[in-house]
Amino acid sequence: MLTRPDRTLANALKDLNTCLEKTYELYHYLLRLPIELTHIQDMRIDEARNKYLPSEEELNPNLKFVNNRLIAALADNEQLQQYAQEHTVTWNDDPIYERMMLDKIVKSDIYTDYMADDDDSMTADSLLWQQLMKQIILPDENTSDAIEQRSLFWTDDDLDLLGQFVCKTFRRIAEGDENAILPMFKDEEDSDFGKELFTAAVGLMPESNKLINDLLQDSRWDKDRIVLMDRIIMCTALAELQTFEKIPTAVTLNEYIELAKNFSTAASGKFVNGILNNAVKQLRKEGKLLKP
Q: Which among 60, 136, 141 is positioned nearest to 102, based on CA atoms?
């Protein structure tokens, strides 16, 4: 039978895995959105063509947008189809958002320029959706509201990060990469990394906090005024430094300093940089950090 601390850690690891699964689900939602928006536009064109007394433009519409090669590749991808079916990934249950977003797209300069451009290639098709994703879809408050209503796990930070991966996928498809759809984990080692790092960070937290507090005594920073996120970032960095021998020290420092800049206060980058660099010196002095 698990003791109380063990149960707490097990539950936390379970929550961590759920967060990772939900993050991957958001990646698929963002990949699915262009497919469904294109389908709606195709239906609009068909309805306009078949209405009573259609105009010449409605009878002979510009089909470049609905014939986009990137969207065709996404729609035909068996991996995406299977995931969407197994996890019910669709935006069709939010028609108001879909119509609103499609209206913004077709009224945008990005869409107008694309439709008028003679460049009829997969590269141009991919670039269109990269631009639409970055400039129209992701920054829109309605998108933030739409994803937050779907899951409590999703935030604007997740949207920004996953948007980058989606655009990377679009580029890889245009380049002909057969493995363009990113897996949830690169390999088994990658799958185990988060769990191992989390466990190490929790196990070393008392020792890490003591080291941080000792270093703060010799600095101008007040330990009682450190924001919680900074302390979490530093404790996790110290765990990675001491646990993962294959990860160079400089790589760990750079990654966690960037995390502090992006997810904490304006002063956190400089603060975390100073404390972690002094911590590395202390760990080396104590023989607890031997890697370069």
A: 136
User: Mean per-residue pLDDT for 242-255?
Assistant: 94
Show the DSSP H helices in the chain as ranges. 4-49, 56-59, 69-76, 78-87, 95-106, 109-116, 122-132, 141-150, 156-174, 188-203, 205-217, 228-243, 249-263, 268-285
- What does DSSP assign to residue 182? P
How far is it, in rounded angstroms, from Cα 12 to Cα 249?
A: 27
| Cβ contact 170:70 at 8 Å | yes
Whether 1 has a pLDDT exceeding 50, the answer reads no
Instruction: Average the pLDDT over each of 124-128, 137-141, 148-152, 251-255 and give the range with the smallest value.
Output: 148-152
Structure token digits, residue 175: 């380049």
Q: Which two tokens stand for residue 254?
A: 């750079």
112-134 burial code (b ≥16 CB/10 A, e <16): eebeeeeeeebebbbbbbbbbbb
> What is the token pair recorded at 121?
């290639």
Is-contact 251 242, C-beta < 8 A? Answer: no
Which domains, ranges and CATH numbers included, belong to the chain? 14-174 (no CATH), 188-285 (1.10.940.10)
Amino acid at 258: E
Measured distance CA(174)–CA(88) in Å, rounded = 26
Which distant-in-sequence residues (6+ apart) come within 8 Å of 115 by Cβ? Answer: 62, 64, 65
109-116 vs 95-106: helix axis angle to the nearest 10? 60
SS3 225: helix
pTM (2 d.p.): 0.81
The distance between the two most distant Cα atoms of the chain, rounded to a whole number of Å, is 84
pLDDT per residue as tens digits for the range 265-289: 888 889 999 999 999 999 999 999 8
Q: Residue 208: how many CB atoms within 10 A of its CB?
A: 22
